[in-house]
Amino acid sequence: MSKRPLKVALLGCGVVGSEVARLMMTTGADLAARIGTNDEYEGIELAGIAVRRPGRVREVSIDPALITTDAMALVKRPDIDVVIEVIGGIEPARTLLLTAMENGASVVTANKALLAQDLAGLHAVARRSGVDLYYEAAVAGAIPLLRPLRESMVGDRVKRVLGIVNGTTNFILDRMDTTGAGFAEALDEASALGYAEADPTADIEGFDAAAKAAILASLAFHTTVTAADVYREGITEVTSADIASAREMNSVVKLLAICEIDAAGEAVTARVHPAMIPRSHPLASVREAYNAVFVEAEAAGQLMFYGAGAGGTPTASAVLGDLVAVCRNKVNDGHAPTVAGYADLRVNSMGQARTRYHISLDVDDKAGVLAQVATTFAEHDVSIQTVRQSGRGLDARLVVATHSATDADLAATVESLRALDTVRDVASVMRVEGD
């Protein structure tokens, strides 16, 4: 019997797709050697590329015969073994991937938005169709993170995942900290360097990080968590004063994705928001547009994953790693582990999440103000750790750091503080993470 190459269809040929195509064409022999062979398959072949604009000039030279605008016809081809999807968005990506799997093709995707909405559903179709579903590139680019959570740590109990998973916001906050730039100035620099999209909303408002947090929580806690379950705040309200306050506390401000299970093991929370972390924490040293994720597990202890979290080449690296894994499974008649949401834990609201807080208050400069403020915190069961007073007259300010409290209790405290006659303004409320 003559052998044939494993045939791959590529959906999308933008920044990431072009790099995937280039790597497949230039390293095909090496990829084939890493995959191996059997009585039926030998080698790997890029069999077709679906695009919206076939006439678009691309950095990589591609055989025009591979290009098609009919993505549905491509994924339905009976000779296609693997479909790589890098077009993004919910539709038509969902329909194309479901069709591919139902027609017997395994899938490699970098589509965080789709996975955050329906990871469990996609895995169910993959399982029913007897194919693989891989998506390492969907979170943190080239950093090998999802497979360790999905496979290497499956025998452990993950307690918390804390990470910087968006390079654009990390670049902006890093510039604000290191150069004293304001938010708008740092965003302009990120745009000029290509770190920010023409419309940066998904990044700076936390939507991108929230989708990734949903995927991380689903894998870490064996529970279905969607983007709609993730509390989200962006960085547009972070001011130079917040950055300066963090510096005074020997801390930095980062946009963090935080997924954790409660002490009883009965519920999980997933949240994305700016937070102060001590400069001694490993995540504080993550600079520029890099990503890093800190995982805390019962047996493994503390682990950190660090590297380039975005860009065509790093993302393509993760895609190619998944492609090799899928093809190895095909050659060796195996399958990837499916995600089991067996735990089916309750997903708590943000109000039930516990953390510490840093609150700046503009107050009247007179006796009794501190006592009023302290009483307000006590009434809402929020314990004060430290209080610092600065300025006089119209510049009088109290900076309060709390012990751990629920977000609901803190929100009620802030509302009551705003109602005090002696408090002119609640200038800043910032969560504090990390030991």
Any overview of this molecule?
With 435 residues, this protein is an alpha/beta fold. The chain has 3 domains: 158 residues, NAD(P)-binding Rossmann-like Domain (Rossmann fold); 163 residues, Dihydrodipicolinate Reductase, domain 2; 83 residues, Alpha-Beta Plaits. Helix content is 36%, strand content 26%. Strands 7, 8, 9, 10, 11, 12, 13, 14, 15, 16, 17 and 18 form a 12-stranded mixed sheet that branches. Strands 3-2-1-4-5-6 form a 6-stranded parallel sheet, sandwiched between helices. Helix 13 packs antiparallel against helix 14. The protein is elongated. 45% of the residues are buried.
What are the SSEs and their pairings?
Blueprint: E1 4-11, H1 15-26, H2 28-35, E2 41-50, E3 67-68, H3 71-76, E4 82-85, H4 93-102, E5 106-109, H5 112-129, E6 133-134, H6 146-152, E7 158-164, H7 167-179, H8 183-192, H9 201-204, H10 207-221, E8 231-232, H11 240-248, E9 251-261, E10 267-278, E11 290-297, E12 301-308, H12 312-331, E13 346-347, E14 354-363, H13 369-379, E15 384-390, E16 397-402, E17 405-406, H14 407-419, E18 423-432
Helix pairs in contact: 1-12, 2-12, 4-5, 5-10, 7-8, 13-14
| Proper CATH architecture of the largest domain | 2-Layer Sandwich
Strand content: 25-35%
Summed up, the domain count is 3
- Provide mean pLDDT, rounded: 94
For the record, give the distance between the C-alpha atoms at the N and C termini, rounded to a whole number.
62 Å
CATH superfamily of the largest domain: Dihydrodipicolinate Reductase, domain 2
How many strands? 18
Enumerate how many helices there are, as a single number: 14
- Sheet with the most strands? 12 strands, mixed
The CATH class label of the largest domain is: Alpha Beta
Helix content: 25-40%
Envelope shape: elongated
> Roughly how many Å is the radius of gyration?
24 Å
The low-confidence runs, each spanning 5 or more residues with pLDDT under 50, are none
Task: Quickly give the structural class.
Answer: alpha/beta
Instruction: State the CATH topology of the largest domain.
Output: Dihydrodipicolinate Reductase, domain 2
